[in-house]
Amino acid sequence: MLRRLFVLILASATALGSMTATSAARADTTLLNSSYDIARELFATLNPLFEADYQREHGVAIHINQSHGGSSRQAQAIIQGLKADVVTFNQITDIDVLAQRGLVAADWAERFPSASSPYYSTAAFLVRKGNPKNIRNWDDLVKEGVKVVFPNPKTSGNGRYTYLGAWLFAHQAFDGDEQKIRQFVRSFLSNVAVFDTGGRGATVTFAERGIGDVLISFESEVSNIRKEYGDGDYEVIVPPVSILAEFPVAVVDKVVDARGTREQAQAYLEFLYSEPAQEILAQFNYRVHNPAVVARTRAQFPELQLLKVDELLGSWESVQEAHFGRNGILDQLQARSR
């Protein structure tokens, strides 16, 4: 099994490297897409389709390069000089950080449909075959003896969605009682077996190192793992209540103005809303907005109640500071759970 995932990653990297070497060599323009950790294969599939469409429509060759990591680390890399033309992140706050530094326009969320989030997902569970700990919902994750794996909320948007998914579940279950919510999330954190820096690392920890009873990640990621390995090793559990996870995109204005790539960057992000791109996104188990694709893939996605952070807890900016800032609620709960 270990070999299978590493072979998959290696094959993807090799194919990506080959495409980069050959396509970039003959491209008139290149763009760099900075994205979250587990989106390598997704964009390696989407990019050739965009490149072909763009050349057919404009008569010039274009090539998309990729940079991946925990989304917060990618944002920091851009602040420190990474020349990304576009970002396709998994959390609003990581683009807001770029806007605060003057790299992205303050109104970035209004520049594309659906608040500049062409697709969305939720936090879901991957358990081992037979679901031996009978994990069905968030409250099963705080039971004694259950070991949980997900990325570090400090470095990964994926991890922040998981942490906030547990918080929102408790918020609803305890009718907003802050003391009970904190106790629930503290118990949840005390069951964490490993905090990896990104989603792909968490996947390897759970699937290849055999650590933990449940991997919490995006529904898309856990469904893709189950698809890769077949039904013989794992089961996907989508809880009846979970968090809305949006995947915001933005043009990095300061970079495209310096490189003269604004038109191409805009076209690339608009492409993500097209029906062919939305079809591919659904194949990678992301939930999409295109009505025709939604209708064709409805049976693929279980119905659930999606809770929104900004409707229940306040703005993302305030949540970021209160929960994930230095000595914030996450730090306080982790200190008490040790």
Task: Looking at this protein, list some descriptive labels.
16 helices, alpha/beta, disordered N terminus, globular, four-stranded mixed sheet, eight-stranded mixed sheet, 338 residues
Q: Quick recap of the structure?
A:
With 338 residues, the chain is an alpha/beta fold. The chain has helices at 2-26, 40-58, 71-79, 92-100, 113-116, 157-173, 178-190, 199-207, 219-229, 253-259, 262-271, 275-283, 291-296, 309-312, 316-324, 329-337, and strands spanning 29-36, 62-69, 86-88, 119-128, 148-151, 192-196, 214-218, 234-237, 241-246, 249-251, 287-288, 305-307. The longest helix is centred in the N-terminal third of the chain and has 25 residues, at 2-26.
Could you characterize what this model shows?
The structure is a single chain. The protein is of the alpha/beta class and 338 residues long. Helices cover 50% and strands 18% of the residues. The chain is built from 16 helices and 12 strands. It has helices at 2-26, 40-58, 71-79, 92-100, 113-116, 157-173, 178-190, 199-207, 219-229, 253-259, 262-271, 275-283, 291-296, 309-312, 316-324, 329-337, and strands spanning 29-36, 62-69, 86-88, 119-128, 148-151, 192-196, 214-218, 234-237, 241-246, 249-251, 287-288, 305-307. Strands 4, 5, 6, 7, 8, 9, 11 and 12 form an 8-stranded mixed sheet that branches. Helix 2 (40-58) links the parallel strand 1 (29-36) and strand 2. Mean pLDDT is 90; it is low at 1-23.
